[in-house]
Amino acid sequence: MFRLDGKKALVTGATGGIGKAICHFLINQGAFVVMSGTTLSKLEALQAELPQGQTAIMPCDLSDADSVNALFDRAEHDHEQIDILVNNAGITKDGLAMRMKDDDWEQVLSVNLSSAFRLCRAAVKAMMKRRYGRIVNISSVVGAMGNPGQVNYVASKAGLIGLTKSLAAEVASRSVTVNAVAPGFIQTAMTDALNDQQKERILSGIPMSKMGQPEDIASAVAFLASDEASYITGHTLHVNGGMYMG
Questions:
Q1: How does pLDDT run across 46-75, given as a tens digit for each residue?
Q2: Does the annotation place 244 within a ligand binding site?
Q3: What is the C-alpha separation between 240 and 246, in angstroms, rounded?
Q4: Do 126 and 81 meet the contact criterion of CB atoms below 8 Å apart?
Q5: Pick the CATH number of 8-186+213-239 from 3.50.50.60, 3.40.50.720, 3.40.50.150, 3.60.21.10
Q6: Which residues have a catalytic role annotated?
């Protein structure tokens, strides 16, 4: 099930913990994956981990609108077509709203939301012509429930959910699906940096009493990218151990 043989995917934020898992999972399901990230050396290291001939790398600075606008078309030009777009890249610049600088607000919205919109805009033009496509946007549990000290990040992730719903309605008649995955707390380098007290506080709010693994997110992405999910669109799939049940 959930096979992706013959499909080609573009994944942003490919070198992060969740991004790597998504790339591994899509490839294991048979897809060819174009991996995008900011740092070429990290992309090359990730490519070396994966089966030869199943990947390509395409660096892109997602804070640069011109580079983002060109990314999807570059991927299609080099690899004939892209069937699956996974908007996974994201940054944080946390702080209380009353002290947040304009630059910290704008950079997070630019990378997390505006770049996803620009890639979606390019993708649907090609996908609608072919009457097939899968777009999966990686949101967050905090985009649904909020989180103090992260107004910029939360706004960007909530915005992705709204973008997903609206775009899904626009392109559904052409067999293009647009969905979101909203991770809860996932064990990555970011959560590994938390101290024991912080981890205990987080786990107390998770009914399953454990953090998720990157593979939990990757399997959700693979499902939504597959033909088995062809009648699901505009949906946000929450993967959070019961932390949020909205």
A1: 999 999 999 999 999 999 999 999 999 999
A2: no
A3: 11
A4: yes
A5: 3.40.50.720
A6: 153
- 157 carries a ligand binding annotation: yes
Q: Any idea what DSSP says for residue 95?
A: B
Q: Which amino acid is at 31?
A: A
**Token pair listed for 18:** 């969740």
**Dihedral (C-alpha) 117, 122, 123, 124: value to the nearest 10 degrees?**
90
What span, in angstroms and rounded, lies between the C-alpha atoms of 42 and 145?
33
161 is in an annotated binding site: no
pLDDT tens for each residue of 124-181: 999 999 999 999 999 999 999 999 999 999 999 999 999 999 999 999 999 999 999 9
The two tokens of residue 185 are 């707390």
* pTM of the complete model: 0.97
